[in-house]
Amino acid sequence: MKKQLLLAACLLPVFGFAQQKIDSSYNNWYYEGRMDLYDQLNNQPADILFLGNSITERGEWAELLSGRKIANRGIGGDNTFGVLARLDGVIKQRPRKIFLLIGINDIGRGLPTEVILNNYRNIVTRLTQGLPKTKLIIQSVLPMNEGKLPYDYLKGKAEKVKALNEGIVRIAKEFNLPYLNLHELFADEKGELKAAYTKDGIHLEPAAYVDWVNWLKQKKQL
What we know:
222 residues; alpha/beta; five-stranded parallel beta sheet; 5 strands; SGNH_hydro; phosphatidylcholine lysophospholipase activity
């Protein structure tokens, strides 16, 4: 029943797009496995929580930020529907700071930008209302490297990434939240993900997270 209620809650934002075919799915065996783990960890306090998909999950944040209480709440393959469905656990953990990065998997499945942004606004609303003392930091969706991408469903989506990030900027301004443009660090002169940072054009090499953390420190966000 709980999962049905969560799914219903996630479907509410797309009501206005009922005439379109909207893929709002998120709950698969991997998602459930990660949630089984996170549900057992959500009672532990965290100074910093990283929330997102596989790009977040693959970061060794606890080692990169040793000495701090870190919660990695990335789930590979997750999208804005999946994040919306698991915010209760995030709020329960009461982190002092949240880094949010989500949206590329929504683009990959061809969801309209308006649907993604509607979900994104709902995520931000839930977090700011549920955690009024927590600093929520919005991060741009990363660029991709077209030449290295083996996934046809992500090819030719650079303009979609741009449009989504423009919308995310507006949401950050609307809620008076800090926005970090990760393209400053990760994009090359063509606006693509730097070849040295990726093997498959979308995911980051492990060493790239060292540069990411150093960049966040330079921006005085860590």
